[in-house]
Give the backbone structure.
Amino acid sequence: MNNHSGRGQVTGLPAWDRCAVMGVVNVTPDSFSDGGRWFDTTIAVKHGLDLVTAGADLVDVGGESTRPGATRVDEDEELRRVIPVVRGLAAEGVVVSVDTMRASVAQQALAAGAALVNDVSGGLADPDMIPVVAESGAPFVVMHWRGFLDGGNVRGVYDDVVAEVLDELHARVDAVLAGGISPDRIVVDPGLGFSKDSEHDLTLLAHLDRLHALGHPVLVAASRKRFLGRVLAGPEGAPPPARERDAATAAVSALAAHAGAWAVRVHEVRATADAVRVARAIEGARTGTDTPGAHASQALQAPSASQASQPPQASPASHAPQNVPHRAEGAR
């Protein structure tokens, strides 16, 4: 792993001296968290720019919900949703990630200005994904994934969730490397909520340090997920709606930053942007390095979440155990 402030750097992306903040733009009618709110190109682009103004370092654009039971959109529809938004944000200098399991969408998004491919299947859903990304030279997020979240494909039983996720991610990273993607362009993601229940998610967060053994920067995508609702509800209460879990998300973001995560993926940016900057300031005070400002070390520097400014300019761009089915939320 290319180390930068202990959390790794991804070749082809700006180098941040703190945990980066990845804002989410769901161009879908059915996301578990904000489905339909940004289901229009103009509105989606504006929302992405607003996320950058609020403190996002990069923006993840997706056109397909991965919540349990969601019906897959066809390729043409996903392209129609995603490509204009990617193009619009990239034209404004935003560092854009495309959230897709389709090689064709990844390829066209990269051509439209995306800088990163975030595939929740880690290349398993589409055999053409790894060759496309390898040829492009783009960075690639490899998430822990055991299949689409429907019926018997959801295998959410673990004897040791941390060890098994590490083993399965390691096998997937090996496959990605064998497919020609450079090791300094790989990010790993433990896949919180995907084929995992709340206790699995909490255990993985408690042991994020062990993911660094894989030798790649770590992305944590906990935003508004079901396990946070369970924690907030307590043993007897009803979980709060997804959009009432942003304070809890910011708490996880601070903890993930402290544990050395390269980036956190969130729907509401402002609180998390503040959280990761405070985490970096405390880290600096402990180690005697740098200043509390937690600036970005390249041209792209998102403003403090307490400031309002114009969007910054970006740099150019295994064997899974056979377990019994378990329904889990892996929505994006």
In short: The first strand starts at residue 20 and ends at 26.
